[in-house]
Design brief:
Blueprint: E1 4-9, H1 11-22, E2 36-43, E3 46-58, E4 63-73, H2 82-96, E5 101-104, H3 109-117, E6 121-122, E7 126-129
Parallel strand pairs: 4-5
Antiparallel strand pairs: 1-2, 2-3, 3-4, 5-7, 6-7
Amino acid sequence: MNRITYLAINHSEAGKLFKEWTKKEPDFDNYILLNSFFFGAYKDDRIVGVAQLIIIDDPFWNRRWGLIENVFVKKEYRRQGIGKGLMKQLENQAISLGCSFVKLTSRKEEGIELYRSIGYEEGSSFRKEL
C-alpha cells in the first residue's frame, strides 16, 4: 500500500490541482496571499489533494481564526482518509499560528459528511474550536 505524504506547498502547485478541479486557470497574480497557506497530499509523488487555510486577524473581537477554503481530493482517491489528513494539517497550522477556531462552508455532500465526521459543528457554516 502506498503512503500519503502531506506537505506545505506554494500557490503554483495548488493551482495545478485547482485548474483540474474547476477547469479554470487560477489568477493568483491579482491576489495578495500574505496569510494564506496551502497543503498538498501526495501519493506516489503525485499531488492527489489540496486545501487552503487563510488566517483572519479580527481586531473587533481581538482574536485570530482560520478560514478553510478549496479542499479538494481527486475523485479516484476519495474515501481513503486523504481529506481528513489535509484537514488535520490545516488545523495544526492554525493552532501553531494562534487561531482559536477554524470555519468553512461547503455545498458538496461529500465535504459535509467529512466535516461532520471530524467534529465540525454545523450552523450557518461549519466551525471547530481548537
